[in-house]
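Box 3.1 A note on notation
Throughout this textbook, protein chains are presented in two layers. The first layer is the amino acid sequence; the second is a C-alpha cell string describing backbone geometry. Keep the layers aligned when reading.
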Amino acid sequence: MSELPGAAAASLGAGGGRSVGDVAALGYADATGHLEHSFQPALSDGLAWLSERAWFRPHQPYTLEADGVAALGIALGVSRHAGTSQARWLKDLVVRSAASPDLATLDRSLFVAAAHLIDAPGRQDSAVMLPEARVALSQLLLSRPDDRCCSEAWNRILHFAAGEEVVPEAALLLRALNVLTERNLPARMGVLDPLDVLHVLEGVQRSFKRWTWEAAPRTRRSDITQWDVENEYHVQNLLWAVLAPLFPDLNDEETLPPVGQKNPRVDLSIPSLGTVVEVKFMRPGKSFQDIIEEIAADASLYATDRRWTSLIPFVWDEARRVEEHQKLIAGLKQLSMVIGAVVVSRPGKMERSGS
C-alpha cells in the first residue's frame, strides 16, 4: 500500500502516462490515511485534470465511465480533498454510469456508492447495490444496513468462489465479513470490547418502534400512556436499561478524581472496558458547535484518569436536525478518546400536544 501512492503520483506527474486509476489510487490512499502530505498536490492536480476531460464521447471506449472501482476512489478523493461542491462533473458521471444497462452489477454498486458519497442529485437508492457492498461501505454511505441485507451478504460470503479475476469482489466481501463480525456480538466467542458498546447504542433508534406513545387507551381499564423523554436524565435512564443486561459492571454518575477545582462526573461508565458514555440533550436552541466543545472538554478531563481509554458521546436531538447528524458524528470522532458517536432524533410519533 505504501508504494502505490508514490507510483500513482509519479505517473500523474509524467503527463502522457497518467490514467484515471492513478487518481483513484491517491483517493483511496487519502481516505485510508496512507497519503503522505507531499502527494496531496498530485491528488489535486489529478482531480483538476479529470474535471477538464470530456466524458461519454461517441465512438470512444469508456474508461472512468465504466470503472466503478476507480469512480469510488475518485469520489473519496473529491469528498476529502476538493469538496463535493466542486465536483459537478463527477456527480453527473456517476449517476449516468450507474444507470447504464450494460454495466456489471459490482460496478453499478460502486457507482451508486460514489453518488451517495458526493451527494449526487438523481442518484439511485442504495437498495439497488449488492448486499455485500451495502455492508462493506456502510460507513461511507452513512447508513446502517438492515438485518435482511446483512443476512444476504453473509450468504454471498459463504458461497463465494475465489479466482484471479475477482479481486475487487473478494476485497469487498472480506470487508463485509469484517463488518458483520464486528456487528455480531457472539461472533467473537463472547469477548467484548468498547466497539460493542458503540454497536449496541447505534441500535437504540430502532428500539423506538415499540416505544409507548399512545393516542388512545390500549385497554378499556387503562389510561393513555406516553413515555416522554424530556431531559438528559431520561436519556441516561433509557441507556441504562439498554446496557445494564449486557455489561454487568455498568455504573452511572461516577465521580472521578478531582482535576484542580474541577470534580468530573461521568454519565455512564463500564470499567472493565475502560469506556465512558457521555449523554447530551440537544434542545432546539442549542448548537452543534456547543456539543462538540462540551464533549472535547469532557474528554480532556476523562483523559486525566488512566482507567478510561474510550469515550462514546450519545446525543439526543430534540429538534430532529437529521441533516446535520453525520457531520456532527464525523467531528466528534476526531476528538481524543472518542471511538464513535451516536445521534438519535426525537421519534416522529413522540409529538407533544400543542407543539
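The beta strands are 251-255, 265-270, 275-282, 310-317, 342-345. Residues 126 and 232 are 34 Å apart (CA to CA).
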